[in-house]
Amino acid sequence: MSGTHFRLLCIAGLLVFGAQQTPAATSETYDPWPGLVQDIFNNRPMNDGNDVIAIEMPYRAEDAAIVPVTLKTKLSPGDNRRVVSITLVIDQNPAPMAAKFGLGPDAKVSEISTRVRVNNYSDVHAVAELSDGKLYVTKTYVKASGGCSAPAAKNAEEANNRLGQMRYRQFAKSGEVPTSGAREAQIMIGHPNNSGLQMDQVTQLYIPAFFVNELRLWQDGSPVLRVEGGISISEDPNIRFTYVSNGAKRFRAEAKDTEGHVFQHEWNVDASGI
Hints:
Layout: H1 3-29, H2 33-41, E1 46-48, E2 53-56, E3 67-73, E4 83-90, E5 97-103, E6 111-116, E7 122-130, E8 135-142, H3 156-161, E9 166-172, E10 181-189, E11 212-219, E12 222-229, E13 238-245, E14 250-257, E15 262-268
Parallel strand pairs: 1-8
Antiparallel strand pairs: 2-3, 3-6, 4-5, 4-7, 5-12, 6-13, 7-8, 9-10, 10-13, 11-12, 11-14, 14-15
């Protein structure tokens, strides 16, 4: 075989190899966000939300199965609009809509923190819907992988024994009594929150999805927060939030999961601080 003929065959082979690699390279650079705007938000216009909502997450997660995320509202005190809801979207997750938080009209919720699973390096968007009917978006980027398929931290028996157990804590701001003013609160629910992508280490079969899909919180009868959750919320859901007390003496929580279980609990506010 002549040298020229050999070189032509090599070039042809490289061209074929490159053509075969193109789809993979394209998938790595594919941006799912435009499609998610259509699927989750019915293609409603998205406005710049940098002055409306902030999202805080670590750039590189230590544990992809429990990545902390904090959402903060940024409306100025003189703004007569209010945040009606905040939707958290992890673009590259199998089920991108991680959670939607509905804010009670009188609770003045200004900060929400939780823990999520992140399955691939991904943009994470926070979309705030305001009382003016418009959507405002901001985003961050997180380097994490494998969070949705990571094995559960607790074994099945331990998880079942803690199923639906709730704990509530409230943290009064300095100089304020527990039944008035702004404060932080935390609700914790014992639940495996199986993603459907985790594998049983004994049977090598996938564990069916089983997670808390709704959580509602009230101070006395006044709504504080409603959470619609998905597979991206970490095991043992933990929601921490800042709100303004209306002087209520009782705090109530109700949670539901995908198997129809309903978990309810009520606490005396005065006895729940730490």
